Task: structure prediction
Amino acid sequence: MKKGFTFVEIMVVVAIIAVLVGIAIPNLLRSRLNANEQYAISNIQTISIAAQTYWSVKNTLPTTLEDLHNESYLPDEKLACSSPPCLKNGYKYNMGGNGTSATFFVFTFPETPNVTGVRSFCAGSDGVTRVSSSGATPANQTACSNLNPL
Result:
């Protein structure tokens, strides 16, 4: 008598593995998306604090992320690239305004909507992190201020 597995037994095992993979992969992707969003929130807060520190020293707000990096307020080169939007953890970062508190805002949005993230985030000169559930990117500080705070 030969020992071994029958074709049917092997197919049952393959089917079970396929079902488990089908359940695990969407959960893994959702976990990665949530992690990217948490990184984005943290990075927006870091940039906002760096901008406030910049303002307390220079009496003006930065107009680009590179300004923060060049002055060593923001050491992360990925967040302060020379050609924005800067990409980190599936989100793109940029800054708007002309150096005044009335116009300053920093924002981030998913690199690939519904894949690397769903929501977009921003903060104005008040330092409050705000969220757009639709992923829309605010055009200015007023649009950012109209979004819901976290």
User: Anything to note?
Assistant: The first strand starts at residue 86 and ends at 88. Residues 7-149 form one domain.
